[in-house]
Amino acid sequence: KLELGDWHMSWAFQYSHITIDDSSTDASVPDVGSGSYFIMIPEIRYSNITHQSVIATGFRTSVSGAYISPSYGSIEGQLSWNPSIGKNYIGLEGHIGWGVLPQNQLFRLGGIAGSLTLPSGVVSDFYGNLTLDIERVLFPIGSAKVTGTLLYEAGTYRDLENQFVLHHGPGIKLSVYLDRIALPAMGIAVLWSIPENRRYTKVSLGIPF
């Protein structure tokens, strides 16, 4: 790991067993065969985040990749901008990912930032989404603080039948932040998927949406 001011660069390795299913991968890509592989994961990240109360503000962006073999790999990008206006905290966050991947290494969506209006278990080799939210501290509970968030997300992903699927909708979220920790200890979000006309309820413990 290397840090230069607000820039952070890292390089990680992961050892994983990968099963190649010829029926679920691009026929134009050579089959590397099932087996165990070292996956190289480089990342470069810029962040000038500061903290107001318990909420992180500022700008951050990152690009990361995963190299599995000459035939398989992926790249993902993320950016967020979180200014404060009075007692309100505005958030604009986007994610994008693309890869040539075996099925058990596809991007997992649903229930995470940018794809809360999707059911858990959705996987894809290409996705993009954008979320706009407004967060405000509502009241304290001892040394913790409870915040409320209004949000709207929109995105698309390519399904296993090679069709692009649009998802979008509004939502509300309650989060509990511990004192001096800018990540919520727990939260609950209720989202409404407009294309599906369906409600999703997400609960988070220790891992932010």
Offer a quick outline of the entry.
The chain is 0% helix and 67% strand. With 209 residues, the protein is mainly β.
Biggest sheet statistics: 13 strands, antiparallel
Low-confidence stretches: 22-32
End-to-end Cα distance: 26 Å
Mean pLDDT, to the nearest integer, reads 86
Count the helices. How many? 0
Strand content: over 45%
Query: Mind telling me the C-alpha Rg?
Result: 19 Å
Order of helices and strands: EEEEEEEEEEEEEEE
Shape: globular
Sheet/helix structural class: mainly beta
What is the helical fraction, as a range of percent? under 10%
Number of beta strands: 15
Kindly report the oligomeric state of this protein: single chain
Structural commentary:
- By secondary structure, this protein is mainly beta.
- 0% of the residues lie in helices and 67% in strands.
- The chain has no helices and 15 strands.
- The protein has strands at residues 2-4, 7-18, 35-47, 50-52, 55-69, 72-82, 84-85, 88-100, 107-109, 122-124, 126-141, 144-158, 164-177, 184-193, 198-205.
- The strands form 2 sheets. Strands 1, 2, 3, 4, 5, 6, 7, 8, 11, 12, 13, 14 and 15 form a 13-stranded antiparallel β-sheet that branches.
- Strand 14 and strand 15 form a beta hairpin.
- It starts with a strand and ends with a strand.
- Residues 22-32 have low confidence and may be disordered.
